[in-house]
Amino acid sequence: MMSNSTSRSTPFGNLFQKSLHDLIVSIRACQKDPLALSETLDNVLKECKQEVISSNMHKKSTAILKLTYLEMYGYDMTWCSFHVLEAMSSSDFQQKRIGYLAAQQAFRNDPDMLILATNCLKKDLNSYKKLDIGIAISGVSSIVTTNLAKDISEDLFRISRHGDPYIRKKATAALGKLFLQYPEALRDNLDGFFQLLQDPDDSVVLVALGVIYEICRINPSPFMKYMPFFYDLFAELENKIWMIITLLKIFTILAKHEPKLKQKLLPVIESLMDHSADSLKYECYNCIVSGGLIYKEDYELSNVILTELQNFCISRDPNLRYVSCLLFHKIALINTEFISSDDKYETLILNFLEDPDIVIRSKAIDLLEPILNSNNIESIVKGLIQSFQEDETKKATTPEYKLTVMNTLLHLFTQKNYINISDFNWYVDTIVLFLNELASLKKCIDLDVLPLIREIGVQLSNVCLKIPDLREYTLFKFLELIINEETYESYSLVLKYAYWCIGEYADDISDCGQMIHAILGQPHHLKKLAPESIEALFPCLLKLFTTTALEMEEIQNSDLYSYLINLCQIILDFFDTINDCKDIETQQRLCENKELYKMVHEVLTVNKESNEQLDKLPELVTTVLPNLYNSWEIKPIQKNQQLKAQAKMNFDYLNEQEFLSNDDYNSLEALIENLDSSNKKEENKLRKINKVYGDDFSSYEYNAALESSDEEVVYRQNDKKTLLGTNENSKKDTQQKLREERKDNPFYLYDDDDQSNEDIQQEEQREDEEDEAIKKSDKIDASKILKFKSKNPPAGKAVEILSEEKFGDDTGSTDEDYDSGNYKDDYKSKLEFKGGKINVVGNNKLQSFNFDNGPLDQEYTSEQNDNNDGSVIEEEVVIIKKKKKGKKASKRGKKIEESEQLIN
Amino acid sequence: MLDLQYMILLSKTGKVRCIRWYGDYTSKEKQLLLKDIISLVLTRNSRESNIIEYDMTGYATKNTSKNGHRIMYKRYASLYFVAGIEDSNSSNELLILEAIHRFVESLDKYFGNVCELDIIYNFEKCYYIMLETFSCDGNLLESNKRKVLQDIQIMDQIESGEGLSGLLG
Lengths: 904, 169
Known about the structure:
Chain A is mainly alpha-helical. Chain B is 45% helix and 21% strand. In chain B, strand 1 (4-11) and strand 2 form a beta hairpin. Chain B is globular and about 55 Å long. In chain B, strands 2-1-5-4-3 form a five-stranded antiparallel sheet, with helices on both faces. In chain B, helix 2 crosses helix 4 (123-133) and helix 2 runs parallel beside helix 5 (145-168). Chain B has a single domain (4-168), classed as 2-Layer Sandwich (Beta-Lactamase). The chains are: A mainly alpha, B alpha+beta. Chain B: Pfam families: Clat_adaptor_s.
């Protein structure tokens, strides 16, 4: 039977033409040598170009066949579309067949080709030869456009009543494709098309059902009235699995569209569920689950399906396990209780998580939510993390898989205000462990792990914020991260959150001074931090510094001053190392903070030298610094509460009471007058300072404004000192000083020879510093810095979780609602039936097509109108559903408008 | 009801033997997709399922939404038969494997113990059978393999008959 008809049918006349067989042989001969291969291919292409313009039709068609073969390997053949057309219109069947094959393979959507092809197609469709019609129909359906569809819809309908089932079958398939482009054809011939379902030939019926299913997916409404017909047909099909499955698919869509069908469909489907074919069984389950035949409270029905599914789950066929996993997921979306209500499903899902196939494992991750609870979370997470390491042994893991697992787990941990977590120490340990995993992922490929690192940071800060008992433990973990070099290399973003928490809860840290040493211990790493982390570092240092100062004052430490001056100097030294930071916001913070610490440093030094009240700190440190941040305690609040609070804010008191009383006002005026006179003196002074400090004067001005009257004396002394200093020093010294001030500022450029000397010195200094720093960081013992006030970190359920505060007695959205709703929406949108979306894309017109408005017979329209009441209400229900899904509503806005018009 | 997006016959060395696109893909998408399919399919082992979930978001241009995508494949001797399906709620993966099997059975019957070489040297025959088995929008056209073969044989007879009559004339 097998023969090479191409070469056999050319005994004479084409002796010198390479046949397709020759072409393939020659290509295969030089497969191992890429150079020879490209040479051969070039030659072949050249030959084909010659042959294709030949007047010998046989030569031409063979060349086209060869080109079609080459097209498979990516060689363009659009240049010869005209010659393909010639082959298509040949009277020789073989040539015609080749022509149509080439057209289908290579020219879908080529407008020039289509215009030329229309005539040829029409001619072949009206041919008296059965097979000519057959291949022409295949051709039509591959390249159909709206215009072509208009032209040939009549012909196709006529052909669909052809005497030969082969032609009817092909015509039906082509009609399906045509309806997508030209829905009017279906509207005007709906009943005619349905006659194909009563065709004596099964193949025709199957294809017609397939077409109806495709249209249903896009727009089910025109088929609702045929439901009884489908139902009868369904009863007649005895063992024709393909047809039963197609009908089930149609039912799934119609049942979603019209929930009343449940009563009628469910018994029939249930009777099919013990059929021997797995694909049919699967379709039954899917029809019940996806068709909305199972309601939230149908525990009995869900149990039937889940029990049946067990056989799939434990099957040796991985495909059955995969589809059962999919179905579990769909069932969980209807109601997670279905699965969490019975322990046996937990074991099944845990089996999925250990499946040898990574596709199944990844799918099963989504199933964690229904089975996860505070009792099993630790063992499940442990198992999952272990599976990360099993690369070499048997189960393959991919970085993407690990990422999905961690992402899902992070989501589940915080769900419903930590309902799944019983041991918070374990929780904190686990998410810190994730950081290590992420670090190893970052190394292997360039996956985007930053969002996850950020999420971990946020979750750790949330623990600090919401669970006061865990604060110390989390801070301890943060400190461990800070003194670990790995942190800076792989997941430095987490430091942003670490800095914030350490600063905010500085009161819980027993030795803030040591903490500052620890944080600044690795300046070479700190330099490389992201700007947003450095920004978080500024308030952190300030809070730590102030806390330590106040604490030491309280315990009457003898060398209070020298300790603080030293600390101040360390911070200032650190600021010098990040002077060349390129981020503008960081520069700004750096300047502000630098001046602040300079001031503190000077005040402390002067006080120390004056030897007055060495056990008391100046007010700058005790009052001004804490006031920069210490106003309100930070508390967790529910989402969107702030907005509500703003809306309900009452500003009436502003009217009841004047903001400034008369007395206030008078004293204020006096104050302003005073200021005016003193301002002139002040200005003079500033001008002088300006000469010395250049640009820096502005920050001095700012700081001067901050000073309280008590500090004035000290401050004056300061001024004198600096002023005196400049008077004594020569001009050269001033310049030198200026230069040093600006040496790290990239905006000032100096001669290179001067610079180079300095650079070398600086470098040496820096290296020394680094060495020192490394020694220091070795010495730091985390436990010394953080002494737990409570001896044992608490464990178990006793931990108090601060509830999120909300405004008034708002019952609108509770935490639980928010969390669970969120999850479902996420996954729903993932699983959402995508028919609509896809078909908007393809250039089909069915979706927006209104089957009810058309030039129909009067009789027919009135009949339609009777049904219309029902279908309009139907539409309305759909619209409401859409509006609930915010995003969708806007996308389909157009459609809603349309249907609203319809209602009006 | 199959919603095939493409059907590809791949050799185990990663060479394309036959390819047919049912969905609308640009040639760039086709290239990228093909590259990924080859690397994904060839690394699977026999204990794993015949389904690969594949995310096309990175490639699809803005106004195409072929992101949800599943690659179904089945291996017969040295050939992989790969079919792509939309990731819709209603796809029946088992049915698609069944359809692939029907197609392979037809090939096997036609060539008589089909092997890779048969398909390499008669790629157009393979396409003709594909055309009779799957309709142009990626649905099943004929579930009965006997009918497929019957139709193909009639067409082949006409071809050779015409060739013969051309010879005699």
